[in-house]
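Our consortium's second objective concerns turning raw sequence data into structural hypotheses that experimental partners can test. To show how far this objective has progressed, the report includes one record in full. It was chosen at random from the queue rather than selected for favorable results. The single chain below, 1061 residues long, was entered without modification.
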Amino acid sequence: MNHQDKNLATHDFRMNRTGLIFAVFSLCLGVGSAWGAPQDHWYAERERNFGYIGGMHQPIGIAHGNNGRIFVVEFYNGSIQLRDQSQGLITRRDSGENPRSATFADGRAYVVSAGSEKVYVFDENGTSLFSFGSNGSGDGQFKDPYGIAAGYHGNDLEIFVSDPTVDRVSVFDANGTYLRKFSTVDGEARGVAVDQNGSVYVADAGERVNVFDRNGTLLRTITGIAGDPYGLSIFGNRLAVGNADGNHDYVKIYDLNGSFVRQFGGDGTGNGKFRRPLGVAYDANGSLWVADYGNHRVQVFDENGTFISKVGQFASASTSLNNPMDIVYGLGTYIVSDSGNNRVVAFDDRKGTFSKILVNGGSGYAQVSGPRGIALDSQGRIFVVDRGNQRIQSYDSNGTHLNSFGNPQLFNDVWGVAVAPDGTIYVSDFGADKILVFDGSGNFSGSWGEAGNLSHQLNGPSDLHIGPEGDLYVADYYNYSIKRFTVAGELIVKIDLRQHGGSGNSDDRKGSRPRTVSVREDGLIITSAYYDHYRGKFWVFDKSGNSLWTRTKSWTGNNSGTRGCVAFNSMGKFVWVWDKYDQFARYHSTYRAGPWLRRDAIPYPMLISATQEFETTDLDIVYKVTDVDDANVTTGLLAYIDGDDSFDKILLPKTFIGDVTGKIGQNVDVNVTHSLSWDMPSDWNASVGTVAVEVFAKDDRELLDLHFVEIPGDENNATPLTINRFPLENDDFLAAYRYLLATGDTEIKLERGLVLMSDANTTPISPDTLSGLALWLDGSDIDGNGQPDSLNDGDLISFWKDKSGNDFNASQSEDTSKPVYRNTGQVPHLHFNDKKLKISTANIQAKHVFIVALSDETSRYKTLMAGAMHRNIRTSASSLRFNEKVTHTFAGTDRNYRVDGIIGNEFKLSQMHILFAELGSDSQGGGLYTDVNIGGDNGVNNHWNGNIYEILVFDEFLSGGQIKDIEWYLGQKWGIFGPGPNGYLAINKDVRVSGENFLLERMNLRPATALEISRAKKGTTPGTVNQFTPDFQIKPGGDPEKINEFTIETKKTGGMFVVPI
């Protein structure tokens, strides 16, 4: 069965009758089996900060690449930055744990990692090529590699790596093949450099630099270098030496023979000052670049040590993103439109760290300004909505510009972009409420969409996504909805976030307006919404529109807002990125029920229009049901007064004008448009009002679409157990009953706001037909003659006739103590305000007492009815109580209270209630009432302040069914909503146990026993090992974050598990 949340479309209709009808019509837009759907759980596989876009964190080494590019080794991040002197940061790549230094030669960058005991090799664009080395002291292995340098022997490139732990330098060829090694002078080797003659310079912690030939013969030593000599670099006849000692923050310059030339720097944070100048590297022009480790920057100096410029600064994660607008996934990378920073950036999927700036900001032909939507096509091309420049830009996967299209005359306020498999490009215009269509070359071919708040209309379309079935998903911002259209613009499904915990308040700070949407290959939908200035929210829906999971991210602090984006990766995981504190979370789904299925075979009804015929009261409804397998589809209509889907507000449209065969009911024609004309006044006797209409559609599937799990037999029970994975809840049963009512099911009926068996009798009984009636005081029949009273409003009442036949009449002789009769604008009743009536000759063994009353006061306890020896029925604040001040109590420890047919003793003030009290079996003296006061006891402060409408006392215990009969009688008589007659199935928005069992029996199911549930839950309990998959275990003390094929839902509380009969 399919239905969807109501109030999807609003129309105003006028009728030439006695007034004006305002009718609200909505339609369930195709959802597949809207109850019992798998309730996925998702857990945050990783939640962290993005890293340091454009900044540095502890730079330790530098190498110069081609075309003015530099590689900067970041110790803290375990990464290497590739930077361009004009463009800035290009990309960041993982370079192992605790990287130390880098060198560049023959188009490759070599980075040594001390923590990983490897050398990582990248091409000139920062693409990882390979690595070599491993932990150990053997040939070609490392224990703690520090420095690295490249040199030539003839035409052969050789890579020199220092390793102080084993006191040696190892030599490799360009591809990482081990060649040889040589020992260094006893000390701790640091940086390495090679001059044009092939001599190898090795910095040593012993305040020196040792010089070797390429085979390791010591040639000379440069001494007197105070501190901890670290990085080395050679240009011509100059040797630059960095320093790792924080007390010697200088860079020293020597000639190659070891003669001191100059030093510069000193401790500080200003230009030209250092905090541990570790790495040094001359560029091709002789400028010296220094990795200023403690100041998180690289500084540039001329050959005389004069400061020229600096690159980078420390960037905490809180400055990385600024209003990210969209995110897509491709080839292991998430691509984000960083709108506030006017750029498009890429993040590594595995680590979640920044990897590359793809597009920079500006108005140039290849630049962007305030980018919004992003999409990838099948060729890996990136399409970006360049909002500020009112155009669409396309790039290859490396960020090279390919094409631009669109212009300010065509675009109003463009937001989203999506590319279909055939290359067609769809662009959402947020300002014009349209979808614009372009061919693969960017030529405009048309548009569709109209502005408005109806289901098929648009109001601020933002993000777009092409789903696996080829349909276009639209985040409809100001309609608070996700909508699925065909690419020609025909609505298929609408998901209204306001019906799934979102807010529809018009205040900007209180809404659930979808910003981005992404669809997985199985049709799973995720959307992020701008909830308010302090919260971002996302939902996960199945293809049918059932909400599977939601999360809200809250922050405290300023009004900066949250701008979350969502995307799925190739593994079906999704990432949620937001700019507050620059965080992202990657979520992983638990075991999903069955494989990823595309449920196109489920029928989807869609409202096309609803209009009132001119000068008539007829409502014309036009709708369509789409279904790919052309199954036997049954449809039905329900209408809800004031849009309230409570059973007492339901209307059953039955009267139609003209033939409706094939349009409504069984064997409805699918994939065609149907027109119905509903004669509303024939089914709804109202001149002015509001209704919402809901259309249902179901094929041959069961009413409750359950996913069953088969628990294998074990040593305790060889028979497999079949049980539903996800517990049924009240809403599941409610939806089933609404469908049955809508389709005119013959086994049930709707009467007096109740769902009943079709043969149930709803005529209330008379109390005097039950045995044991001892006292009956009726506020609508004060004199007990069965006729309307001739009293006037405000009359004092001295006598209240007992209608039970026992003549236990209540009376009062003193005018100052007489209650007042009220009948103006209300049902007739007696009003007590420190007044009371007395029955002097009573001798009632009360077992069950029913009182219809209204309380005006909360302070102190107030007595409704009192007997001798303080046997009282009273209230305290808003609770029904028994007075137990003496040994003889009215009720024992097993006493039973009910309010309006529901077990309990809580009720609302200033509202009529049916109050019920039952004698407990362990009472002494029991319910013996020899003298009875109505409206008070013998005290002076405990009188009832409020109304009393009716009192019934029985001196025999009634059956459960008889109690319900009396409550039903009182509820119908006094207009109290809540009690139902015997055999009713559902009331208000609540399905009774009898109603649940009725539906289950129709499906040949029954509730699972406690033993069956316990057996099914085995292996899903935190801290236990699943017996069928021993490698699957829920962590102790935590929620069951993962569910496998042998487990049932345990995270939710409540609900019903069922098994086949």
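The partners drew two points from this record. The first strand starts at residue 9 and ends at 10. The mean pLDDT is 80. Both points have been shared with the crystallography group to help prioritize constructs.
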